[in-house]
Structures are given as C-alpha cells and as structure tokens.
Write the structure tokens for this entry.
Amino acid sequence: MRFTLRQLEFFIALAQTQQISKAASRCNISQSSMTVAMRNLESSLNNQLFLRQPKGIELTAAGERFLHYARKIINDSQLAIDDLLHQPQLEQGTVNIGIAKTLSAYLLPAIILEVEQHFPLMTINFIEENPQELTESLKRKNIDFSLLLTSNIAHDNTLETEIFIRSPRRLWAAQGHPLLNQSVIHLADIENQPFLLLDTDEYPDVIKEHLRTRGGSPNIFFTTTSFETVRSLVAKGKGVTILSDLVYRPWSLEGLRVMRRSIADSTTYMDVGAVTLAESSLSETATAVLTYLRRVITRLGEEA
C-alpha cells in the first residue's frame, strides 16, 4: 500500500469541494490528472472512496474514515515542517483568552498543546463562558481577546471582529434516512422532520431566525446542550439537525453513521474568529499569541 502526500492533498480537496473540476482548480492540476490520481489512490488502498453522482462526488463510508487519517497525516507533516522552520517563541508574560463553549469543546483540544509548545515561557489562560459574559469581560479588560462564534454575537462600535473560519452549516441525518434519497433537499423538506436542537452559544436564536426569514420553522423534538447527544440521536434516526462542518464527525459514540447534505435554499455559516476592543491596543505578548492562533485555526478550518 503506497500513496503520496500529494495524493492525500488531492483527496482532501475533492472531499471538500465534492467536484472534480473545483478540486483540480484548487490544486492547480488538470481534471484528468485529478481523476487519475484518485483512481490510483483507490487502487492502492483497495477501497472505493467516492460515489460518482451526476452533480459531483460523495464519500463512501470508507472514504469518510480515510479522510480522517488523510487530514491527520497532512496536518502532522505540516507540524513537522513548522517545528523545524518556526522555533519556539521566548516571550514571557500572561495572556487571558476568552473562548466560547462550542470552540472550547471542538477547537481547544486540537490547538492547546501546539500553542503551549510554541510559547513555552508564557502563561496562557483560556476562560470558557457564554458570549455575552465574554464580551463584558473583554470590556472590563479582564481578558485580552476572545475566540467566539462571531456570526452569533451582537456587534457594537466598541468591538473589533476578525473572522478566521467560515464553516457552512448543513443537514445532518442518519445513514439511510429518506431525505438522503432526494437529489435536492430544501428547507420545506425538513419542516416536518423531528428537529434536534443544540442549545449553545446563542445557536437556537440564530437558526430559528435563519429559518423564519425563509418562511420556515423547525419542528423541535428535543433540545440539549450536548453535541454528542445530538450526534447519537441523529445517528439513531430520532431526528435531523443543521450544524456546521467544523463540528461534524461521521460516527456517533455508538459507531453509527451520521451523514451530511447541503440544503439548496439555506446558505448559512458558523463564523469563527477573534473579538478585541476597538479603542485599545493588544500587548505585544497578546498580539503574538493572536497572530499564531490565527494561523493555527485557519488551518483547522481548511481541514474541516
């Protein structure tokens, strides 16, 4: 079994774009080269990674599993390069960073060791709170900056917002769900389905308002603050939900499959970024940490 890092990069691009032409353009190669590379990758793995559909491609179960490892291999190779090219920073001091609950659950475990290793002499504190409390702490200057779902917060002139990631929200449903048999899914198709609502970081208000402006409303079956509960109930066919690619995982804790599909008349994003005070400048240490987090989080967004 042999494959190259370049093949993995092509595979990840195709999984993200779901179209040969778009993936080829992103990787600066011809469509025929992309097709041959993916055919060779499938051959080397002795597994079918894609289902060819009229409007693009869809990952098979094997493809979803391999995508996880492909991203890890590419990420680890980049970390190895970064480790050689970017030596640990020797700044000292303390930086207090507010972080939303959603990001604390999914982003913090992926970045915290890398950040601490990059700033070994610095004390970096992550404070988890709801967005409103973090905004108030920022205004009181109890924290240096916040990592928030910037699409979910109310903005005012005292705050400056920078978006790192725009993660599209899509429909999640169990493998074999009748909706997945449709060539196109609309919001109207979802209205009569039991809807599993995640109650965290102002998301209920955001999704309800998004659906209301398009003439719809969710048929809420169950509300929970737990991502894993939503994922498990979706995988068991107890309902559907709409959540972002950043928090998507293809398998529940029970080993059941969760599928995701775009909704034709629903384009909404979970924006992840930093919020700072408009009228004050960050310290040099806080600026250094923010600059590094920008690069790390943007990379994670590209891998989602």
Remarks:
- The chain has a mean pLDDT of 88.
- The first strand starts at residue 50 and ends at 53.
